[in-house]
């Protein structure tokens, strides 16, 4: 039985911009892997190190704001829902942190572990 990976082969980029981006992202990933484990890396860190910020700042603001409103509206609509107990404000804050803050800010600290002095 012959196994071939031919169908999975990707063609290398030929456009100069694609090649520069690919090389910069690869170099950034390899450099960051020397500093921390793969599980700790975020796309934002890799692109920032590569000099490519993939998410326009204004889109990040729109996404963060609308996601926050959507999550809060969902939570407030849970009143009277017989599907289960209503989530506490702390639970909703953790959901917001994991779904909105971490992806946008690259914050890897668990919510509630960092204390302001």
Description:
This protein has two domains: about 15-55; about 55-115, no CATH class. The chain is about 55% helix and about 0% strand. The longest helix is centred in the middle third of the chain and has 21 residues, at about 55-75. The model is unreliable at about 115 (pLDDT under 50). The N and C termini lie far apart (about 65 Å). With about 120 residues, the protein is mostly helical. It has four helices and no strands.
Index terms:
117 residues, mainly alpha, 2 domains, 56% helix, 0% strand, elongated, disordered C terminus
Produce a short descriptive summary:
The chain is an all-alpha fold and 117 residues long. 56% of the residues lie in helices and 0% in strands. The protein has helices spanning 16-35, 43-50, 57-77, 89-105.
- Sheet of most strands: none
Let me know the average pLDDT.
77
Cα(first) to Cα(last) distance is 65 Å
Q: Spell the H/E element sequence.
A: HHHH
Question: Beta-sheet strand percentage?
Answer: under 5%
Total count of helical runs of at least 4 residues: 4
Segments where pLDDT lies below 50 for 5+ residues? 113-117
Radius of gyration: 20 Å
Percentage of residues in helical conformation: 55-70%
Broad shape: elongated
Task: Tell me the domain tally.
Answer: 2
Find the count of extended strands (DSSP E, 2+ residues): 0
Secondary-structure-derived class? mainly alpha
């Amino acid at each position: 039985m012959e196994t071939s990976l031919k169908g999975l082969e990707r063609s290398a980029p030929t456009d100069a911009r694609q090649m520069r981006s690919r090389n910069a992202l690869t170099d950034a990933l390899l450099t960051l892997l020397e500093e921390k484990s793969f599980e700790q890396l975020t796309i934002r860190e890799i692109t920032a190190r590569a000099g490519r910020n993939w998410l326009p700042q204004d889109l990040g603001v729109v996404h963060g704001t609308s996601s926050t409103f959507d999550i809060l509206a969902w939570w407030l609509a849970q009143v009277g829902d017989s599907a289960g107990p209503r989530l506490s404000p702390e639970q909703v804050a953790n959901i917001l942190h994991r779904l909105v803050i971490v992806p946008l800010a690259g914050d890897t600290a668990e919510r509630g572990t960092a204390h302001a002095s």
